[in-house]
Amino acid sequence: MALELTDKNFDEITAQTDKPVLVDFWAAWCGPCRTLGPIVDEIAKEYEGKAIVGKINVDENPDLSTKFSVRTIPTILFIKDGEVVDKSVGVASKDALTQKLDAHMN
Question: Which of the residues are catalytic?
Fold first, then answer.
């Protein structure tokens, strides 16, 4: 299961790691987000200990949506060393997401 990231815990969780971070921006009312959610959870399980995989509810955490200029959901950001290094907008396959994540593994 992916970590629940919030405006309050995001920096604490993502800034203090040398692992790549996959962040799924989603909302409960978003149909495509509900399609992508289980894929993100599978990735979280498979990459446990190798990457941080989290979800941010855009309705509950507007500051992070603004900070990263997320205007469309689902949006997945790939963060390495505190910087956004890749992005995926819309529903993507598990293979496409894991390829992007693998590209940023140490």
Answer: 30, 33
Check pLDDT > 90 for residue 69. yes
User: Domains of the chain, with CATH numbers?
Assistant: 3-102 (3.40.30.10)
> Which tokens sit at 105?
């593994």
Rounded Cα gap, residues 97 and 28, in angstroms:
21
Q: By percentage, how much of the chain surpasses pLDDT 70? A: 99
**Residue that the structure tokens 């909302």 belong to:** 27
- pTM exceeding the 0.90 threshold for the entire prediction: yes
* Cα torsion angle, 56, 11, 2, 45, sign: positive
Rg over alpha carbons for the chain, rounded to the nearest Å, is 12
How many angstroms separate the Cα of 25 from the Cα of each of 37, 42, 55, 87, 106?
10, 16, 6, 11, 24
